[in-house]
Amino acid sequence: MTQGRLISIWFFIGMSLLVNGLIILAAGLYEYSHPPALDAQVVLFQLHAGVWWGGLLALVGGLYCWKYAPSRG
Amino acid sequence: MTLALVASSSSSLVHLHPVDMVIIVFYFALVLAIGFYLKGKANTGEDFFMAGREMTAWVAGLSFLSANLGALELMGWAGSAYQYGILATHWYWIGAIPAMLFLALVMMPFYYISKTHSVPGYLKLRFGEPCRIVSAVSFAFMTVLMSGVNMFAMAKVMQIVLGWDLNFSIWVSSLTVAIYVTLGGLRSAIFNEVLQFFLIWAGALLIPILGLYEAGGWGNLKILIAQRASEQYVHMWAGLGSFSTNPMGIHWTGIVFGLGAVISMGYWTTDFLVVQRILAAKDMRSAEMAPIIGAGFKMLVPIIVILPGLLGLGLLPMKLLPESQAVATHGYSYNDVLPLMLARYCGPGLLGLGITALIAGFMSGMAGNVSAFTTVWTYDIYRPLINSKGSDHHYVNMGRWTTVIGVLISVGTAYLVMRSASIMDYVQALFSFFIAPLFGTVVLGMLWKRATGPGGFWGLLCGTVSSISMWAWVKVDPTALRYVALSPDAKALAQDMYQALWSFLVCVTVTVVVSLATKPIPESALKGLVYGETDIPPIENVPMYQKPLFWAVIVAAIFVILNIIFW
Q: Do residues B246 and B240 make contact, with C-beta atoms less than 8 angstroms apart?
């Protein structure tokens, strides 16, 4: 949806999800390769939620950015 | 509930990593960037106060829902779910869905066709100036106070959860809100509310996913809860046949008639904070579809609010306590359940996103209050009472200044509450006094031609006074609860339900009696305002699946099925 000549709100949302997703993915991958001490791990650490959740957010955000990019009019 | 949320605690619940701070800082940068980007798009009154009336159904609907989805709401109801079990879901289903559908199908046509800027504006058209002034002054006063109360509550929660300084939280959040609302007006507030909606889901959805995985599914969670609390904690209706057979001490009549028929109707159909978002819709169909879209998503909100509370009840190793006991024993309170679950599953990055979701919720609620206050002050108080001959540009400037002043009053209120926390309790109670009677006045105005100006005015006034009187009666003599809430076992939430029901009935009765005793309003003056005198244009030339009624029926059917499943 584009509000007249405004940049679409969905583009801003896509940007937010993309940037947050990439940061979370990077933090998740770092924890995957450098696991914290056992007593510092969150519950279900072995599922590496940061990796797949961050990846999913980045993917959805990327799709929104692409679909609602200002350059696509 | 807010008061309980902010009772002091000695140490922070979670500790942020640098990567979490990056996510939080990025959020602040993004909302400010949106405000500066929209600065040039808010030059006229329609742009600044009504977002140009060009929002699609999706944007208006998500904003309508988000304005109510603040972080206190999330944390408070997660705590209530821990305390009362799945009964708390009633506030999301019967306490919202019927009212949203009623707004969409019955009331929205009158709001939209009358082209009013606000709910008090509709009352002016329907009942005359006195009714508008009573409603506008009480709304403006209470809204800006509520904004301050929420601001203080946010700062206190940030202190408890993260160990942040109170002054830092108050000033950073209020200045950010002041900047982006002053620059972009309602459009900026709406954009940020939709952004907040996505951030809340992105930040909070992992808790139920991982929680259910840990518990071994919903069936196992119910067994865990039954072992640690009672089987009644996972039934929505089965224990409501008596006041004493459910954790909330409420009877089904209170839920159905007090919550479903009065409180939720009052809030979702007449509180201008939420209705303003729908008035910004681009056309009639969008205005009707927006609350239906909001209702569809509202049914899902218990997944990220109620379920974490239930998961906390079933999985957390420690027992959470009422606020007073938690403070006395340095333990954890019911209201800590959401941050505790966040800290349980979320590592670096994910934790920052969860905290950002809470901050976004706080700020968007504050922006909603401030933008609604600005509109009501400018259009319903300043223009009719102080300067009725200003230019459009003058009123936009007044709106921008009012935004800044509104935020400053909110900051002042926040510091006032800091000195005396009991003020918060009174402000919240005061706000609830106006909701139920206002619904009686508005709905009679829309559906009953014979309702007159004096009838509307005296009905609203008497309903409000009766609500205040009942609250004061119970405050002075707690045993009066057996009369007001029909049971000495009733808890605070149950009292609210019955208090609303009685004040609504007082409002309706007085309105009817006074209207019948006064001169009817000529029918020619009611066109576009009342059922039977308004030509509501039919929504044609769209397929069945795009019609509001079609989706309202689907949402209503899902609502019934969900209540049966979790009976």
A: yes
